[in-house]
Amino acid sequence: MSLTRRNLIVGAAALAAASARAQKAEFAYKYANNLPLGHPMNLRAAAMADAIRADTKGRVDIQIFPNNQLGGDTDMLSQLRAGGIDFFTLSGLILATLVPAASITGIGFAFPDYPTVWKALDGDLGAWVRGQIGKAGLVVMDKIWDNGFRQITTSTHPIQSADDLKGMKIRVPPSPLWTSMFKALDASPTSINFAEVYSALQTKIVEGQENPLAVIDTAKLYEVQKYCSLTNHMWDGFWFLANKKAWERLPEDLRAIVARHIDAAALAERGDVEALNAGLQKTLAAKGLAFNQPRTDSFREHMRKAGFYDEWKHKYGDEAWALLERSAGKLG
Ligand code: X2X
């Protein structure tokens, strides 16, 4: 028997066992996400689900559906709201299609480094965003999971300054803030769910995209891109969301166990992603990506002149903007 065929059979048997176990559990839940199995988010989530099964003596069973198996992000968000999916991790910027305020943490060049990110997201700004998510009828865990600082890749040319983005066809995730930012940079952004990004790059529907190195690596985007410009143009994270009815079905004691393990996994995942992103440049260069380090002053200047910061300050309101500036410093 070929190794692949054997793996398939072993994989299918494992899946069947997992689904039989889930059916027996008192609380069988589905957690879906958009990232490949090898990303730290899925590795930590698998350990988290094991810990939850162990600590609830099998009463709570969370089955993981990675890699857009249940649909693209916008579709998974609808399924979460309808109760077809119980848990879902989503970028605050895409969540903003439902909760507009949730994109504030993705304002371009707001956070200079990780300590500033975690201080804000585990502090007042994060609490304010979670309050807004709650008002929209979703449950959100306390600790946001890391996606990372984002870098631009292209198949055509390196991005050295804002001028290189002019007219460039770039994929952005479905989110008003993302589109607005790249329009302010004079690029030509197209909203595409992550599920379709690899093929959109392969077929040259778009020239480029932007993502943290951990995603570029685990989703193998280096196979269909040539250049990687280390712009660090924004930080992005995933809120761990729950369908409200599904969450409230859990008795209080089990809710506490589940929330504790999810938040602990978030903290572990943050460490993994930060370490991975720091070391991946070498790995990706060996796989053929050509790196460059642009000066980002020209980007900020361009966005400022285009009125990007003024526009978004007005949209979020003074209270929220003040919370952002308290941790990120004066913007715009
Ligand atoms: O869609 C993307 O680019 C990703 C994987 O970074 C997000 O989930 C926002």
Structural account:
- Helix 2 (40-55) packs antiparallel against helix 11 and helix 5 (114-121) runs antiparallel to helix 14.
- Strand 7, helix 7 and strand 8 form a beta-alpha-beta unit.
- Strands 1, 2, 3, 4, 5 and 11 form a 6-stranded mixed sheet that branches.
- It is built from 14 helices and 12 strands.
- The protein is globular.
- The chain starts with a helix and ends with a helix.
- By secondary structure, it is of the alpha/beta class.
- The model has no long low-confidence stretch (mean pLDDT 95).
- (2S)-2-hydroxy-2-methyl-3-oxobutanoic acid binds next to loops.
Summarize the structure.
The protein is of the alpha/beta class.
Helical coverage, percent range:
40-55%
Distance between the termini: 62 Å
Low-confidence stretches: none
The average pLDDT value, as a whole number, equals: 95
Structural class: alpha/beta
Estimated radius of gyration: 20 Å
Q: Overall 3D geometry?
A: globular
What ligand molecules are bound, each kind once? (2S)-2-hydroxy-2-methyl-3-oxobutanoic acid
Quick one: biggest sheet? Answer: 6 strands, mixed
Strand element count: 12
Q: H/E order of the elements?
A: HEHEHEHHHEEEEHEHEHEEHHEHHH
Strand content: 15-25%
Can you lay out the helices and strands and say which pair or pack?
Layout: H1 3-24, E1 27-32, H2 40-55, E2 60-65, H3 73-82, E3 87-91, H4 92-95, H5 114-121, H6 124-135, E4 138-140, E5 145-149, E6 151-154, E7 169-172, H7 176-184, E8 188-191, H8 197-202, E9 208-211, H9 213-218, E10 227-229, E11 235-243, H10 244-249, H11 252-286, E12 290-292, H12 297-305, H13 308-316, H14 318-328
Helix pairs in contact: 2-11, 5-14
Bound molecules: (2S)-2-hydroxy-2-methyl-3-oxobutanoic acid (X2X).
